[in-house]
Amino acid sequence: MNLEKHISTLLYSYDCVIAPGFGAFLTHKNSSSLNETSIDPPSKKVGFNGALQKSDGLLIQTYAQSRKLSFEDAQREIENQISFWKIHLNKNDSLILGELGTFTKYPAGNVEFKPNELNYSLESFGLESIRTKFIMQPVPKNNGSNGVWWKVAAMVPILIGGYLYFAQPQPVADFVNEQWSGFVAPIVNTHVVSTETPLITEEVKVIEEMPAAIVENVVSEKIVHAHQVIAGSFRLKSEAEIFEAKLKEEGFANAKFTQKKGSYFYVAFDTFETTDEALAFKRSLPMDYPEAWILSLN
Fold this sequence. Notes:
With 298 residues, the chain is of the alpha+beta class. It is built from nine helices and 13 strands. A hairpin with a 3-residue loop joins strand 3 and strand 4. It is flat and about 100 Å long. The model is unreliable at 170-220 (pLDDT under 50). It holds the Pfam family HU-CCDC81_bac_1. It comes from Moheibacter sediminis. Residues 229-295 form the SPOR domain.
């Protein structure tokens, strides 16, 4: 059994994986960064919170599916493995969990978690930090007075050409037609715009009819609340849709496919606005559904 490997795999798709009775492995995201020495891609690093120990069902559910076990057998195996972790940590003051990191217990009783430098961001898969090198370019020397004389020499042809152009008389009529007629022409043609007014009116009528169709689509959308009593999760959407239909045949009229999270498509018995409503519904379920669990998106 390699529970730590299973948790590490889940962290690529989930931000929080709770090991019941032990703690939660959390990830935090960092955007790409640029500094004086390197260019770093986006990252997703793991941390640990020992206060979050109550199971949310995710680890047991996915472990049972990957090992083809019942929910109860998967729960039993996970509890045994976590019990071994605790005994090993108390006895040796150290616990290494593969790709996740290392736990160290100090004489005062506090436990420190040092994560491994593994990037769980799927967006940055295969990308590594790039070390940058600065290229120093020489500053051009100032040649003093020589630079000034070059500037003066460059201006002489321009000054002479300008003098010869304006010193000669210019025919007024030719000058206006050739130099400015191109700018006057667009102003003369502005009245053409008003001839297309009827076309604009017809387009407005089409736009006014759109909201009705939009309202119909909104009404037909499934209402999914934040607290969901999950009946099952599937790798294929077609399997999730079949399971949804099966639940409705069994009397769960509000059963619905709620979302895809990670690699799984989730199907809920029903969704609720509050945790209390979700818990009350879960407790009211028949004994035929022991694997039901609550997913809260808040």
